[in-house]
Amino acid sequence: MLKQILPFIHKVIKSVLGGEDSMFEMKKSKYGRGIFATRDIKKGELIHEAPVIISSKDEYKYLKKTIMIEYVFWWGEDLEECALALGYGSLFNHSYTPNALYKLNLKNQTIDIYAYRDIKKENEILINYNGDPNDDEPMWFDVF
Known about the structure:
Layout: H1 2-16, E1 24-29, E2 32-37, E3 46-55, H2 60-63, E4 72-75, E5 81-85, E6 93-94, E7 100-105, E8 110-115, E9 126-127
């Protein structure tokens, strides 16, 4: 029986990790690394569920002294904690005109990335780091 289900398990693992069966891949972008669609993605489609490592507000002062602070999301009911998204979750680049959005899934402890609009194959998948796709508040870095 195990021999029969191994191909299925392999396919699921590759899909979750962004392998050949995934709808995206990481490659070079104008921002350094980026996440690109490997097929057309429909508006509302779940792109990625990234498990998170949560840091309390007490640990924030230590985290902000490291490069990791550039990759965390504000987390929790009151956004008083921060979370590092695992998988490809922290590699989606920012745009003020995103084609994807993220939702904090507090119950499952994941950051879920969804298509905000249809995304064509080969396009970079971009999110607004402010959370709201229409929020144009300044970033802590230069946006180009």
